[in-house]
Design brief:
Elements: H1 2-17, E1 34-41, H2 61-75, E2 79-83, H3 99-116, E3 120-122, H4 132-142, E4 145-147, E5 151-153, E6 164-169, E7 172-179, E8 190-192, H5 195-209, E9 212-217, H6 221-230, E10 236-239, E11 246-248, E12 256-259, E13 266-274, H7 286-306, H8 312-315, H9 320-348, E14 359-366, H10 375-398, H11 419-425, H12 433-439, H13 476-480, H14 484-488, H15 501-504, H16 518-521
Parallel strand pairs: 1-2, 2-3, 3-4, 7-9, 9-10, 10-12
Antiparallel strand pairs: 1-13, 5-8, 6-7, 11-12, 13-14
Length: 526
């Protein structure tokens, strides 16, 4: 009992002595190697900054830029930033009616990545939505490489992008290779070589040079695991098509497989002590004890959040500071568990290299709303918002207003029979949803507009530009359905009396709303 209490107190002390949301305290490496920081990311999927719909949203390129620079300074080490792909777009083809907006967003993301200092991005299937020439132009302009060793022209069978990038990070030499997965064949005259054909000649060159090999892959995780098992020359695989912060650590000669949560909410940070020609080995033995003690402290704090039996993220939705603290603890818990898994495997493994094996220390960092922003990258996002609103305004000018004889009547038509409900609705955020955009000068921004008006799907956002005033705002019919037939025959043409969670989830879902809780939030509607 006393031992457990002491471990928990030690873990809490370690937490209190480290910053809550900023740089992790790095443990010493095994010594004698080439030390550097490697920042990794994946699956940004067209995100630039939190939309602002809810307090303390996670993510944002400007927060990422600040953390990369700050953590590099505090570690006093050289650093590199790499991304596994699926960076620029949300889907594999441009949305009809929103092509200009989506290209402009992709331009801003690439510009921000150049400012942040990314060296290479793997070409993911989603990155090809605007075509190969669009991506090549971004590569020329923004100063980082787009890599794919298996994406070829279907006719000529020639590679479309550079397969590799060789570069120095301090004293360490890296070979970075890209592998593409998930392309949309009907829309593109492209094909994918099997990795069994694409990788061997590239790995032979890297092995001769004694470089650390990093693979940026948008293939499924099952394929990445096969690659890790097949090629001991690969040391690290950063993968897209991920769903969460993960670190798979086979140890020894096999590659680490790493990824972060989609949508740019988190970043991964590896502090690497690299010894050329050596597989992954074990850090000092005391690091396992420290990690276990720190996990005990994190678990103790998380247990207090979970004491009520409810999902803490939903329970704290209206308490942004406590929600941020809870999410940060969850990120620490994931990172510590992954670290303990690796260190425990090291402690029981036999036949470790005797002479200074390479080692690493991983952390996941949630880009919490309390973190500072890099002002130059923030300016890119701000200009993008202005440009998107202007593009929407021009579309609105050329679009004919949709006639009033549609199926939607507006809240005023509901008032004669439902006066008290309509009066109560008028005091809610739904009623003022359109005005919140107008107040920010974003009432034509198609990224936002569909969820601030009535009866327009986000998949057809451009239709929201031509609505009459009565549909500007989230009115009764947004949830209960169009009311014309019901108004004409209330007894036979009934509306949905109690809309279910799926209706709300069209808008109240990540990345716009991470903490939506239907049972409690539905009571706020009127």
């Amino acid at each position: 009992m006393k031992t457990a209490l002491l471990a928990r107190l030690l873990g809490l002390a370690l937490l209190l002595l480290s910053p809550a949301v900023a740089a992790p305290a790095w443990a010493a490496g095994t010594g004698g190697g080439q030390e550097f920081l490697l920042f990794y990311s994946n699956d940004n999927r067209g995100e630039t900054e939190p939309c602002g719909c809810q307090p303390n949203q996670f993510g944002g390129l400007a927060r990422k830029a600040f953390q990369f620079e700050q953590l590099t300074k505090e570690a006093g080490l050289p650093s590199i930033a790499l991304d596994a792909g699926d960076l620029l777009f949300k889907q594999a083809a441009l949305t009809p009616g929103q092509e200009a907006e989506e290209r402009r967003t992709a331009n801003a993301i690439a510009q921000a990545y150049g400012r942040i200092g990314y060296k290479a991005v793997g070409v993911g299937g989603l990155d090809l939505a605007a075509g190969v020439d669009f991506l090549r132009e971004l590569a020329r302009r923004d100063g980082f490489a787009w890599l794919s060793a298996n994406l070829v022209d279907k006719t000529s069978q020639k590679l479309v992008f550079s397969p590799t990038l060789s570069l120095a990070v301090g004293q360490a030499r890296l070979t970075v290779i890209g592998l593409t997965g998930g392309i949309n064949p009907p829309a593109l005259d492209l094909a994918l070589l099997p990795w069994e054909k694409a990788l061997p000649p590239l790995l032979a060159q890297a092995s001769q040079a004694g470089e650390m090999v990093v693979l940026l892959s948008s293939l499924p995780e099952s394929e990445n695991r096969k690659i890790a098992a097949a090629y001991s020359a690969i040391n690290l695989i950063i993968q897209s098509q991920a769903q969460a912060d993960t670190l798979s650590e086979p140890g020894g000669k096999q590659a680490i497989i790493a990824s972060v949560t989609p949508g740019g909410k988190d970043i991964g940070i590896l502090k690497i002590d690299w010894h050329p020609g050596q597989g992954w080995g074990c850090p000092p033995a005391e690091q396992l004890a420290q990690a276990k003690a720190a996990l005990d402290g994190v678990t103790w704090q998380l247990d207090k959040y979970r004491a009520g039996g409810q999902d803490p993220a939903a329970e704290l939705a209206d308490k942004p500071k406590r929600l941020a603290a809870y999410r940060e603890l969850r990120a620490k818990e994931r990172g510590l568990r992954a670290e303990i898994e690796h260190l425990s495997a090291c402690a029981t493994a036999e036949g470790q290299a005797e002479t200074g094996p390479s080692s690493y220390h991983n952390r996941f960092l949630a880009l919490d709303g309390s973190l500072p922003e890099d002002q130059k990258v923030a300016a890119i996002s701000t200009q993008l918002d202005r440009d998107l609103n202007e593009l929407g305004r021009r579309q609105a000018e050329s679009a004919a207003t949709r006639p009033d004889d549609q199926d939607y009547l507006g809240p005023a038509a509901c008032a004669p029979c439902h006066a008290e409900l309509v009066k109560a609705w008028g005091r809610t955020k739904h009623a003022a949803a359109y005005q919140t955009l107008a107040a920010k000068g974003q009432q034509f921004n198609l990224n936002c507009l569909p969820c601030h008006v009535t009866g327009v799907s986000p998949k057809q956002a451009n239709l929201a530009l031509s609505l009459p005033d009565k549909r500007r705002g989230v009115g009764c019919e947004a949830c209960h359905g169009p009311g014309r037939r019901h108004a004409a025959s209330p007894q036979t043409a009934r509306l949905t009396r109690q809309p279910g969670p799926t209706v709300c989830a069209v808008c109240h879902a990540p990345p716009h709303d991470e903490g939506f809780d239907y049972p409690s939030h539905v009571k706020l509607v009127h």
